[in-house]
Amino acid sequence: MPIRLEVWGERALFTRPEFKTERVTYDVMTPSAARGILDAIFWHPGLYWRVDRIHVLNPIRFDNIRRNEVDSVVVASKIRSMAEGNGDGGAIYASESIQQRSSMVLRDVRYVIDAHFELLRNKMSLTDSAAKFQNIFVRRASKGQCFHHPYFGTREFPANFRLWEGDDDPIGFEQGHRELGYMFYDFDYHDSAHPNPLFFRAALDNGVLDLESVEVRS
Q1: Which domains does the chain have, with CATH numbers?
Q2: Angle at Cα 97 formed by Cα 92 and Cα 100, nearest 5°?
Q3: pLDDT digits (tens, 9 = 90+) for 161-202
Q4: Phi and psi at residue 39, in whole multiples of 5°?
Q5: pTM recorded for the entire structure
Q6: pLDDT digit string (tens) for 88-105?
Q7: CB 112 within 8 A of CB 57
């Protein structure tokens, strides 16, 4: 059965991968970010969330802010060396590596996510079922429960959530057609060692990003 979840927050940053140093957000939430919110509420190895539609309820507004970031990354080989008792693992200290960077973010966002889940039978127990998963998600979402607090792109922009109330469809913030260009869809994990990023041509129709019939490509 389909799930309909309302999410909202003060700011959001769905980073466009074509920009390197400065972070610039997409105009609307990406499908992978929506799936991440659903996983935060209820994740199980026996299911995989599929996002069908994203209803954009608030007008698209941008803010330019500056954020403190570190300019280094931890190297896996140094972590292994530390585990073997050699060195400090390439520790990163914010006081030494901090940099201020500009970010173009969204403000005052509100979406409704339409989604369903697919069962992964080889990762389910004998007592698992679609009805069981559905009931668990509805119960957790209605009580505000989550494995970790969901967020809009980065953890400093938390997302509030609740089940969509009522039988009426959400009303998008605008009528008509709006092209959004190519947008990140999700990763293809068939090769777990080298996940393949997937993209699609995104557009809003009456404030709705419809993902059921999009053509996805790498």
Answers
A1: 2-65+103-217 (3.30.70.2660)
A2: 135
A3: 999 987 788 999 999 999 999 999 998 877 767 788 999 999
A4: -65, -35
A5: 0.85
A6: 655 555 555 677 778 999
A7: yes
